[in-house]
Design a protein that fits this description.
Blueprint: E1 2-7, E2 10-15, E3 25-34, H1 37-51, E4 70-77, E5 90-93, E6 96-98, E7 103-105, E8 120-123, E9 127-129, H2 136-139, H3 142-154, E10 162-165, H4 169-180, E11 186-189, H5 193-202, E12 206-208, E13 245-248, H6 255-262, E14 268-271, H7 283-288, E15 292-295, H8 301-313, H9 315-319, E16 322-327, H10 331-340, E17 346-350
Parallel strand pairs: 10-11, 10-13, 11-12, 13-14, 14-15, 16-17
Antiparallel strand pairs: 1-2, 3-4, 3-8, 3-17, 4-5, 5-9, 6-7
Helix pairs in contact: 3-4, 3-8, 4-5
């Protein structure tokens, strides 16, 4: 098969042996594979490992075929696998499987190749048939939309307002999920005018550029009055004081600390962005205002199914996340573009092109 392999700093597109599905797995032919922040983070980590490796040992660096969000055609079923899926169906799947020592992420592990290849393997129990009226490129959005939906579902402490920091695919998916759940108002902040425009089209009530306008000074626009800290509440106050939901969807260094320092009392902060680096914050900042800090990881299987249903019911909105489609040979250039070009949102790779 052809695959875009990542080793050290660079990709190379080359022919390698076809994967063999183990019992319980499906062999699939990826049709569209998305690139996301986790992939960019993986590339940085592998480049850092290469920088720390002597020249004579560079060939021993791990080789990974990325791509954990994709749609695909089912082309094979491993012997002994129980599934209702049929050869030729178009599917998507949760990119997780069981490893020898711990769960493994397909497309983020050297042992489980992802969707930036002409063939890949997924677990049958984690595969979902894409309905015939859902285009394959939109079906490839199921994974990132699931991440946003899960984060929105975790924000259960406050009804709103909601603040979304970072309007990449996940932040935009949070906005879409909140809007479809009838949970507003929504404020969205991003440096990119293109991403702000999409946020507004998906239901954000206020969109702003944090370079020129602090998102924490706009709550009066929603007729929302932050509550005081607990000792200053009225003596007969009962229940949870109303606060806001803040979704950190950038993964950028220092943003969590900025949010903790600026969030109104009783806010619920959901960290969704990939943060592989060390973060520092002052706990007292959160203690005196009783902030809730929660970390969101991936999604549950039922949320994956719900995200696919969301895409099917709202294809025009989902399509706004896609900004370009590239052939497999352009994988490295696509990674560079997503990392450097703030107008890009979701780049899809066609492994068969």
């Amino acid at each position: 098969m052809r695959a875009a392999t990542l080793q050290g700093h660079h990709f190379s597109v080359r022919e390698i042996a076809n994967p063999t599905p183990a019992k319980g797995q499906l062999l699939v032919r990826p049709l569209f594979t998305g690139i996301c922040g986790s992939d960019l983070s993986l590339r940085k980590q592998m480049a850092a490992a290469a920088d720390a490796t002597p020249p004579e040992a560079q060939g021993q660096l791990p080789v990974i075929i990325p791509g954990h969000e994709f749609s695909a055609e089912l082309v094979g079923i491993a012997p002994g696998t129980e599934t209702a899926m049929k050869i030729g169906q178009i599917v998507t799947a949760l990119p997780f499987t069981h490893g020898h020592d711990a769960p493994q992420a397909i497309g983020l592990s050297p042992d489980h190749s992802g969707g930036l290849a002409t063939l890949s393997c997924v677990d049958a129990v984690r595969a979902f048939a894409i309905p015939g009226d859902v285009p394959a490129d939109l079906g490839a959005l199921t994974e990132p939309v699931s991440v946003g939906l899960h984060a929105a579902n975790l924000a259960s402490r406050n009804a709103g307002p909601n603040m979304v920091i970072g309007c990449g695919p996940v932040g935009l998916s949070v906005i879409l999920a909140l809007r479809l759940q009838g949970r507003g108002p929504i404020l969205a902040a991003d440096f990119s005018p293109e991403r702000r425009a999409v946020a507004a089209s998906l239901g954000a009530d206020i969109v702003l550029d944090p370079a020129t306008d602090s998102p924490f000074g706009r709550w009066t626009d929603f007729a929302f009055t932050p509550q005081p800290m607990s000792p200053l509440l009225e003596r007969e106050f009962r229940g949870l004081p109303p606060g806001i939901n803040i979704f950190e969807c950038t993964g950028a260094p220092g943003v969590i600390d900025q949010i903790v320092k600026a969030a109104p009392a009783h806010s619920h902060i959901i960290v969704v962005g990939v943060c592989p680096h060390e973060e520092k914050l002052t706990p007292l900042e959160g203690i005196v205002r009783e902030l809730t800090l929660e970390f969101s990881f991936a999604y549950r299987p039922e949320e994956f199914a719900a995200a696919l249903a969301m895409i099917r019911a709202h294809p025009d909105e989902a399509a706004r996340l896609i900004t370009s489609r590239q052939p497999l040979d352009r994988t490295e250039a696509a990674f560079d573009s997503l990392a450097k070009n703030p107008s890009e949102i979701k780049i899809l790779i066609d492994p068969q092109a």
